[in-house]
């Protein structure tokens, strides 16, 4: 779970930095669409950075950590593909990057479902 803690910290820092850049460095009506993409990506990145930290904190409370490990990896893939595609579109203008966003969205969903499974295995019996 060391990786989850490291990735939580790095993704939290990047999410804050890129969100601040969107708010302050992307001013002007011609940048509205790109700014909205960056803000959405930063929002999802920050939410999932917190989830990664929570997953790392849960490892001592769940007897079989395999579901937690899968949850963390799925959320990392989600950040890479979903948030990354939004950032790529915003900064390059190439909308083709959007084709990978659903992979990231599905990865986020899978991560949350794996977290659910870990909780069920620990507390549902």
From TrEMBL:
Gene Ontology cellular-component annotations: plasma membrane
Cited Pfam families: DUF423
Family statement: Belongs to the UPF0382 family.
Annotated localization: Membrane
Lineage: superkingdom: Bacteria
Primary location group: membrane
Keyword Transmembrane helix in annotation: yes
Membrane topology of the entry: Multi-pass membrane protein
Membrane-crossing segments per the record: 46-63, 70-90, 96-120
UniProt name for this protein: Membrane protein
InterPro entries, alphabetized: DUF423 (IPR006696)
Alphabetical keyword list: Membrane, Transmembrane, Transmembrane helix
């Amino acid at each position: 779970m060391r990786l989850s803690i490291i990735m939580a910290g790095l993704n939290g820092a990047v999410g804050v930095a890129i969100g601040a850049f969107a708010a302050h460095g992307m001013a002007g009506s011609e940048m509205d669409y790109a700014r909205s993409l960056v803000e959405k990506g930063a929002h999802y990145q920050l939410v999932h950075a917190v989830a990664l930290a929570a997953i790392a904190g849960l490892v001592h409370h769940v007897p079989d950590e395999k579901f937690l490990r899968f949850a963390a990896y799925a959320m990392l893939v989600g950040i890479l593909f979903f948030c990354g595609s939004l950032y790529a579109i915003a900064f390059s203008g190439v909308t083709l990057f959007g084709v990978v966003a659903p992979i990231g969205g599905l990865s986020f969903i899978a991560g949350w479902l794996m977290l659910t499974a870990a909780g069920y295995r620990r507390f549902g019996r």
